[in-house]
Amino acid sequence: TSLFQAPVALFRFQIIFYEDRNFGGRSYECSSDCADLHSYFSRCNSMRVESGCWMVYERPNYMGYQYFLRRGEYPDYQRWMGYNDCIRSCRFIPHYQGSYRMRIYEREGFGGQMMEFMDDCPNVYDRFRYNDIHSCNVMEGYWLFYEQPNYRGRQYFMRPGEYRRFSDWGGMNPRIGSFRRITDFTRNIVFPFCRSSSTRTGTSGGATIRCNSIRVESGCWVLYERPNYMGYQYVLNRGEYPDYQRWMGFNDCIRSCRVFPHVTMGALHLFFSSGLPTQYSGSYRMRIYERSDFGGQMMEFTDDCESVHDRFRFRDIHSCNVMDGYWTFYEHPNYRGRQYFMRPGEYRKFSDWGASCATIGSFRRVMDF
């Protein structure tokens, strides 16, 4: 009997839930599916996946928001793109090495136009010519549906089986923007090794093609989709990001980066090191305005704001004056969506901080997260 017990222990799959951020507070270890976690912890602010791939759910019985997790550390719920600190059930995704095949349908009950897929689809509309999927038949393999294109937004775990309507996979509506197979997503970084003493590291030249994983050894950084600190922005602090979804990226393109001057030494590994920033330990002060060029209603902030509309009574910020400290703007409330790094200075219009519109849902100070 002992000959068979050792391999079982060796390949035990495990996920650990923690009540507080940074793996603090009461914890619970789980090694199998669990339909109701409520009796083990009241809230979940961090997780550690020791092995395997998992889906965790906001509500009991595998309902509510769903989040796909694989091996790694998640020191706060933003790291798994969570909307809150509520996790009530979890499901282990079994290892799979077979083929993948799925059919999606225009209407409920497998009606209307049908299309069969065997590979990932970053944009459903481009391939299917419809924005909605009303029913689906997963014949082989395990898949993830995403609410938005390029594997963004709410996630839905799709096991082999028939889904006659979108509510069968837990959707509130039939909108699916992309989907992909659950496989080993590990990718290699293609950045060359280089060193720099500059606090602003630009592109690494023509050799850089894509970036699919990042390790931040120390410090806080802002990464940009385009050269010269343009395009989508992503704020990263110390930790591992094994794929671009972990830093809430829209794609695998990183072309410039900038370190926050709030630590003594910074080192960002896109499998290269860089950065010798200075210390920031001062106060934080910022004024936001209803209109461009500092016009209309003004409000001054010295602390974080998780909902701009609740505090400011406007959904848009058209100009801003950052007087002290470093801040991050977020497109949606509760620090979600696109990010914009705000250094001290005057921003007379929203395009000055790299935005394509004036909508800001929340913002917070850049400090030790």
TrEMBL record:
<dbReference type="InterPro" id="IPR011024">
    <property type="entry name" value="G_crystallin-like"/>
</dbReference>
<dbReference type="Pfam" id="PF00030">
    <property type="entry name" value="Crystall"/>
</dbReference>
<dbReference type="InterPro" id="IPR001064">
    <property type="entry name" value="Beta/gamma_crystallin"/>
</dbReference>
<feature type="domain" description="Beta/gamma crystallin 'Greek key'">
    <location>
        <begin position="141"/>
        <end position="183"/>
    </location>
</feature>
<dbReference type="GO" id="GO:0005212">
    <property type="term" value="F:structural constituent of eye lens"/>
</dbReference>
<keyword id="KW-0677">Repeat</keyword>
<dbReference type="InterPro" id="IPR050252">
    <property type="entry name" value="Beta/Gamma-Crystallin"/>
</dbReference>
<dbReference type="GO" id="GO:0002088">
    <property type="term" value="P:lens development in camera-type eye"/>
</dbReference>
<feature type="domain" description="Beta/gamma crystallin 'Greek key'">
    <location>
        <begin position="52"/>
        <end position="94"/>
    </location>
</feature>
<keyword id="KW-0273">Eye lens protein</keyword>
<feature type="domain" description="Beta/gamma crystallin 'Greek key'">
    <location>
        <begin position="219"/>
        <end position="261"/>
    </location>
</feature>
<feature type="domain" description="Beta/gamma crystallin 'Greek key'">
    <location>
        <begin position="325"/>
        <end position="367"/>
    </location>
</feature>
<feature type="domain" description="Beta/gamma crystallin 'Greek key'">
    <location>
        <begin position="13"/>
        <end position="51"/>
    </location>
</feature>
<dbReference type="GO" id="GO:0007601">
    <property type="term" value="P:visual perception"/>
</dbReference>
<comment type="function">
    <text>Crystallins are the dominant structural components of the vertebrate eye lens.</text>
</comment>
<protein>
    <submittedName>
        <fullName>Gamma-crystallin M2-like</fullName>
    </submittedName>
</protein>
<comment type="similarity">
    <text>Belongs to the beta/gamma-crystallin family.</text>
</comment>
